[in-house]
Design brief:
Elements (H helix, E strand, L loop, with lengths): L8 H14 L10 H8 L3 H13 L3 E4 L3 E4 L8 H6 L12 E2 L2 H8 L3 H13 L3 E3 L5 E3 L12
Antiparallel strand pairs: 1-2, 3-5, 4-5
């Protein structure tokens, strides 16, 4: 992103994101703040100001533990519930490989910190654990729709 006035950079970022939402390039979840920092080549505080501007205008909303969403869209459940739903998928069996942190970050548009927290909660409930090699595997399948956190 070209650097004009430092005071106006966050407005340029917010207008770019607004255009992507308007044009349908972003339809639900926004990319993580880290991804936006990389994409626009600006600081985290600039991204935070841009997001705050869009939030104040009612264009986006923040969901604790889930990220930023276009207002009125997206899955608002905690990340751990959405990740646990992977184990409820058709054909998932005990012993199957569980996705890597990187795969989960990309799939859910979440930060690595948020994904690690969800994984830790799932490990604490005995759903997943260390598998062969460096990966994780499914230890047991969830029953019902439990939403308890560890």
């Amino acid at each position: 992103m070209p650097q004009g006035s430092p005071r106006g950079t966050y407005l340029e970022v917010s207008e770019s994101l607004r255009a992507k939402i308007r044009d349908g390039k972003i339809t639900e979840a926004l990319p993580s703040q880290s991804a936006l920092v990389s994409e626009y080549g600006v600081s985290r505080s600039t991204i935070e100001r841009a997001l705050a501007t869009l939030k104040a205008d009612g264009v986006i909303e923040s969901v604790q533990g889930a990220g930023w969403f276009v207002t009125g869209t997206g899955d608002r459940r905690p990340l751990v519930e959405r990740v646990t739903d992977l184990l409820r998928g058709e054909g998932v069996k005990v012993g199957d490989r569980f996705p890597t942190e990187k795969e989960l970050c990309e799939r859910f548009g979440a930060s690595r910190t948020a994904v690690r927290s969800a994984i830790a909660q799932m490990e604490g409930r005995g759903l997943i654990g260390k598998g062969a090699g460096r990966g994780r595997e499914v230890l047991t399948l969830p029953t019902g729709r439990e939403t308890q956190t560890a």
